[in-house]
Structures are given as C-alpha cells and as structure tokens.
C-alpha cells in the first residue's frame, strides 16, 4: 500500500456510485427518441426540394449555352450543331435550329449551387432529390445527356400554387374578354 492510498483510503470506495451513475445515464439515453436514420436500410425522408442531382429535359433545351456560361465551376459541357428546317408554307423561308449532340455535367466538380437551373430560360433543368449515385471511379460522375435525362422521372411535381396567390398573368390574359371592334360597342 503506497502513501497516497494510506492517506485517501481504498480507491474502490467511490467506484459503486460511479457505476450507478453510468448505468442511470445509459438507462436515460436508451429511452430517448433516436435522431439517426438506419441508412441504407431505412431511406431518409428528404424534403421534395432537396438538391440531389440535376435532371435534363432534353426536348426543352435549345443549346443556348447560358447554363454552361454561368456555371461557376465550368462543369457543364454542351455540343450542338445547326440543322435546316425546310419552310412549311409556300414562299416561306427555311429555318435554322440547334440540335443537341452532347450535354454533360461533371458532378465531381459541381457544387450544387443551382445557378444553371435558375438561369435556364426554357425550363430544361430541374433538381431531383435522388442522391444515390456515388461511384468508385471519379470519372463516372460525368453524367451524359442520357443519364441526366433519366433523372427526370425522379423529379417531384411542382408544389401546388398558394390558393391566395394572384392569378398567373397567362391565365388572366387568356380569360380576358375579347375587345369589341370599334363602333360596335353597345
Ligand atoms: S449546380 Fe452550380 S456548379 Fe453545379 S452545374 Fe449547376 S451551375 Fe454548375
Ligand atoms: S440554359 Fe437551358 S436551354 Fe440553354 S443550354 Fe442550358 S439547359 Fe439548354
């Protein structure tokens, strides 16, 4: 027995209260509601506007390049070519239109800022809450237009309009009564 033990008595004197205190803490925390999800066994309940992956609606894309120019990470790659559309009426002029050859986003560079979606004037890009696309090879995070198009089916429908919101301008214009020709007003 060393000098300190002689002075303070046996060290296991305070052991029992310590164990009881530990057991009480364990019992208290064991009955609390858990805040963790057992992913991947339990899918997380994500809000519909979660930024998981970007989906492309190819039919709406005009290859205007606005999203690629505004992307702060320069991780959108677009290739297109012009195609001549013959005139549909006699004496009409042929038209030119852009045809999308490639549209890719490199998700290893993307910082999910959403600028590309905000600036697209033709509603061709959407957020999907889908996030399960981790890869073991970083090069596979480059999603081409087919893969980006495939995400469209995971895009949630837009939220319903607020019932007290003003009528959309397009609906108001469509519902406006036609103007009577001059001189026929009653
Ligand atoms: S979310 Fe931001 S970083 Fe990602 S592709 Fe769009 S603009 Fe670029
Ligand atoms: S801004 Fe929209 S329409 Fe223009 S290239 Fe990008 S996705 Fe296509």
From TrEMBL:
[4Fe-4S] cluster 1 binds at residues 61, 64, 67, 120. Its EC number is 7.1.1.-. Coiled coil: none annotated. [4Fe-4S] cluster 2 binds at residues 71, 110, 113, 116. It is an enzyme of class 7 (translocase). It catalyses: a quinone + NADH + 5 H(+)(in) = a quinol + NAD(+) + 4 H(+)(out). It is found in: Cell membrane. Gene3D superfamilies: 3.30.70.3270. GO terms for molecular function: 4 iron, 4 sulfur cluster binding; iron ion binding; NADH dehydrogenase (quinone) (non-electrogenic) activity; quinone binding. It holds the Pfam family Fer4. Its cofactor is [4Fe-4S] cluster. Binds 2 [4Fe-4S] clusters per subunit. NDH-1 is composed of 14 different subunits. Subunits NuoA, H, J, K, L, M, N constitute the membrane sector of the complex. NDH-1 shuttles electrons from NADH, via FMN and iron-sulfur (Fe-S) centers, to quinones in the respiratory chain. The immediate electron acceptor for the enzyme in this species is believed to be ubiquinone. Couples the redox reaction to proton translocation (for every two electrons transferred, four hydrogen ions are translocated across the cytoplasmic membrane), and thus conserves the redox energy in a proton gradient. This is NADH-quinone oxidoreductase subunit I. It comes from Knoellia locipacati.
């Amino acid at each position: 027995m060393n000098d300190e033990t002689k002075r303070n008595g046996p060290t296991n004197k305070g052991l029992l209260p310590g164990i009881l205190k530990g057991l009480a803490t364990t019992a208290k925390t064991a009955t609390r509601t858990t805040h963790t999800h057992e992913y991947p066994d339990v899918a997380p309940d994500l809000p519909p506007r979660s930024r998981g992956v970007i989906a492309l609606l190819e039919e709406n894309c005009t290859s205007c390049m606005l999203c690629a120019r505004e992307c702060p990470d320069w991780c959108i790659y677009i290739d297109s070519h012009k195609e001549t559309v013959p005139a549909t009426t006699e004496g009409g002029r042929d038209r030119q239109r852009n045809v999308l050859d490639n549209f890719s986003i490199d998700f290893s560079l993307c910082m999910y800022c959403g600028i590309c979606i905000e600036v697209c004037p033709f509603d061709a890009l959407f957020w999907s809450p889908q996030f399960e696309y981790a890869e073991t090879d970083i090069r596979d995070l480059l999603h081409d237009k087919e893969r980006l198009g495939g995400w469209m089916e995971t895009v949630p429908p837009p939220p319903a309009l607020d019932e007290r919101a003003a009528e959309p301008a397009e609906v108001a214009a469509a519902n406006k009564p036609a103007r009577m020709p001059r001189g026929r007003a009653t």
